[in-house]
Amino acid sequence: MHQFNASALELADAQAKGLHTIGDAAKLTGVSAKMIRHYETLGLINPTDRTQANYRVYQTRDIHLLRFIKSARDLGFSMKQIAQLASLWQNEQRSSAEVKKLALEHIHEMDERIEALQNMRKALNDLATRCHGDDRPDCPILDGIACCKTPGSNP
Amino acid sequence: MHQFNASALELADAQAKGLHTIGDAAKLTGVSAKMIRHYETLGLINPTDRTQANYRVYQTRDIHLLRFIKSARDLGFSMKQIAQLASLWQNEQRSSAEVKKLALEHIHEMDERIEALQNMRKALNDLATRCHGDDRPDCPILDGIACCKTPGSNP
DNA sequence: GCTTGACCTTACCATTATGGTAAAGCTTAG
DNA sequence: CTAAGCTTTACCATAATGGTAAGGTCAAGC
Q1: Angle of helix A140-147 relative to helix B60-74, nearest 10 degrees?
Q2: To bridge B77 with a disulfide, which of B49, B72, B89, B155 should be the other Cys (CB 3.0-4.6 Å)?
Q3: Positions on chain D within 7 A of a protein C-beta
Q4: What is the pTM of this model?
Q5: What whole-number percentage of chain B has pLDDT above 70?
Q6: Phi-psi category of residue A10: left, alpha or beta, with phi > 0 → left and psi -120 to 50 → alpha
Q7: Between residues 102 and 141 of chain B, which touch chain A (CB distance below 8 Å)?
Q8: Which of A116-130, B10-24, B128-142 has the lowest mean pLDDT?
Q9: Residue pLDDT, tens place only, A115-132
């Protein structure tokens, strides 16, 4: 398991060269070590070099990419979308139209989710405002849930 | 596996009595047979009677409960919340206040999700409107994703 | 040198709600 | 009797993240 290739450093040497362990990378980027490893298995980030002891070592460009991924996650992009975005980000030949297309698609998805949530919210809120909310058992909310939908004929 | 108890019917007899197979129940309620079985393992619905051939048979009250569950799902309630709602629905001693409390909690959760989505949408839309979206590579969207967030000091 | 604590490694399990598949058994129409 | 179409259970998969366990490594202090 322990691969000794010519370039494998000891940890102290790596740190002296400004390289980071996975814990450092996590602190620097806000991405958990767990997820950094996960992104590696997803192919979202390339496997890093390792120390002689098999520790991952991260370079500055890796930190930047992890921050990019983190920001894109914070904007709600899926991993699949982020893979595309990261690829465009690292491609000097990209067209901004490609990026904008992805962004607009994601905005559209968010709009749909927002609308669905707002519709559910309104339906439930309408029921809730009709419910007195006291000690008595009769409840327009339960009645509404039980009776609104008729996905088939009543047997 | 094949349990012969005194009350186990043959399928034809069960259907003559107005009972339903799982496929019928699925068609009548809009809940897939797969999910009906799943809800049973979750304890959301009680195990039904079986025919001699071990087929589940559903009574009218089961159909009603499944419709209740389906409607609550359509309103975005989680399974955990639905278990509580269904319990209240079937409890004649409930207070409507308990139901309303659950409903208001769910509305609050939806409000939070809506707000989070709207914030993401706005942030991304602001970037997108600044992107010309043409053949050139420079892109405020990518720049914004890469540079907005600084979860640590730059190394 | 040896211990200790903090870190790293991999491998596995859990989450949520849903869908899919496979292998086997049952039912009913032809 | 056979074929189609149902049913059964038991797995596996999803998306993104967290947790745990068992073991290796590093640095500091005695």
Answers
A1: 110
A2: B72
A3: 6-9, 15-20, 24-27
A4: 0.86
A5: 90
A6: beta
A7: 103-104, 106-107, 110-111, 113-114, 117-118, 120-121, 123-125, 127-128, 131-139, 141
A8: B10-24
A9: 999 999 999 999 999 999
